[in-house]
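[Meeting: bench + compute handoff]

Bench side (C.D.) handed over the final construct sequence. Compute side (W.E.) agreed to return the predicted structure before the next meeting so the bench team could plan truncations. Sequence as handed over:
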Amino acid sequence: MVVGKVVGTVVATRKDEKLLGAKLLVVCQVDMEMHPTSTYAVAVDSVGAGTGEIVLCVSGSSARLTEATKGMPVDTVVMAIVDSIEVEGKTTFQKR
């Protein structure tokens, strides 16, 4: 799993029929201090995340294990919206 920030959306009017109805988000991976890295992914949203939210993403075969992505040609999925992150007793992120 990786922590990321939703920075945009992808609109695709033509796509595999298994992806119909799927919301596609652009997620930028962040470090534990919430600084953006240079790593981006397009992820299927399984939890109703929106632009600006900090999320947990999973990639690979695990991305096809959520209820929203079973049987879909998916490599990355947003599977949680983060409320807070604590590292070594210090809160590095707290949802407002």
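W.E. noted at the follow-up: The chain has a mean pLDDT of 95. C.D. will use this when planning the next construct.
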